[in-house]
Structures are given as structure tokens and as C-alpha cells.
Known about the structure:
Helix 5 (114-118) links the parallel strand 1 and strand 2. The protein has a seven-stranded mixed β-sheet with strand order 3-2-1-4-5-7-6, with helices on one face. It contains ten helices and seven strands. The protein is of the alpha/beta class. The longest helix has 25 residues, at 74-98. Helix 2 crosses helix 3 (55-63) and helix 2 (35-45) packs across helix 4 (74-98). It has one domain: 3-Layer(aba) Sandwich (Rossmann fold).
Amino acid sequence: MVTTTLKITPTDSRLIKQLDIYRKAAISGVMTTAMLPLWARAQESLQPNPLFKDEIAVELARLLDLDYGAIRDAWQIQTSVAIRTRILDDNLHGYLQKYPDAAIINLGAGFDSRYYRMDNGSLIWYDLDFPQLLELKRMCFSETRRYRMLGKSILDFSWLDEIADQGRPVMILAEGVLMYLRESELITLFEQLAGKFAGAHLLIELLAPGAIGYHPLLNRDNAEFKWTLLNARDMEAINPKIRFLHEWCVLDYYNDRWQWLAVLGKLPLIRNYFGERIVHLRFQ
């Protein structure tokens, strides 16, 4: 049974004012990029036939007054976020069917509310992100014995000492985060993860190579995509303990959502260069 730990209510004007004041004062730079996928998931949930329902995203996007509909390539970004969310949800659900008492570690969690869609009453869940961002999230979400928010940079490895997996199977999620790191930082991160979580599974997002150096919020928030791989199997070169298991390209799914890209996305060059991927890895 899912445990509800939300604080938000549709008419909480005091909370809306607190959120607005805090967001303007404390959230800047790369932290603001957490708002774009939140908006995209909310938009998906309002579709007539959504790929998933995330009512929490709808409510948070309303409270935070988010609207990115006018930014460059907004429909493509929204479609890609929606499809990657569905791919991650499906695969994590399958993992939890096999390992219902798993520990889930969500790196760069932002305003992701996947915990509420996945909670089976047995798992434990950790959301990790910048302290300023999670302080904003705490205004809307409550922690429980099985759901914790760790307010630290992904590269502040002291957070590893706060994970109490208790011998449980471990799944590490990294959606919308690795592309903001340099390759040297990625190598260090995976070295730390592999050393701490031997045998863990990972579901990570690999940015489309054609997006490197660009971000739809670049001029507004000084955000920039820095890293990805053309070949997902090259993740094994990042760390000798990484084993590539599978990948899913968003352009391969839900053709009716891709408009003109549904045809171009079949071409290998377009697919490989402009298709975002979800990759399943495992540590030895």
C-alpha cells in the first residue's frame, strides 16, 4: 500500500507564497533545470491519453506557476521527458516485482515524485539533490521511515554514509543529472558508487549527443549540457565494474507523439545522434 506523505493542498495560498519567495531567493543556475521536467510530467498528465498519471506533478507545477510552453523545442522536450519517464517507470516497476524490498537511490531527484507511483509498502527510497532544492521540496513532501531526502551535491560523497540499505538489493536512478557533469566527475562518481554498491543495478539517462553544449534554459539560467556517450556500451570504459545490460531509445516508442520526427527518427544517424536513451547497467 502506498504511503501518502504530501503536504500540498489545492487552496494553500500560504504555501504558494512561501514557495515563490524561497524559489526566487535560493534556486538558481543548474538547480532551476529541475523545474523543466516537472512541467513536462505535469503536461503529460493533463493529456487525454497520458503515458502515465502524475497528479503530484500537476499540483506542484500549479503551485510553482511553471510554464515552459514557449521555449525552443518545448513539444520535443515534453515528449522526450514523458517517454523516458514511462520507460523508467516500467523498468523500475519490473525490478520491484522481483525485489520488492529494494533500496532505491534517486540521484539528482529534483521534484521527481516517482516514489509515490512505486511505493509498495516494503521498499526504502532516497532522493538526493542540492540542499536548497530539497528544502523547497520539503515544503510539499514529508519524509518517513522509508522515504528520505538527502540535501547534498551528488559529488559530496558524504551522502554515501547516510544510505542504510540494510543488505537490500539496490537500484540507482540517474535521470536528468549526469549530463551536467564533466567526464572526470563521472569517473569519480562511478568509482564511489561501484565501491559502495557492489551488485547494484542502475537505470541512467544518456543525453542525445546532438544536445551537448545546448540547453533550452541556457540564456535564462546558465545551464549547459556537458557529457554523454554516442555508444551506451562505452559506459563499461567509465569503470571496470560496470556491465552494460540494455538500452532504450525514446525515438523507438510512441511514434504518434513524435510528429515529423517519427519518420526521421527511424534513420540510424538521426536516431543515434538525437535520440535520448535510458540505459540499464549493473555493478559487478
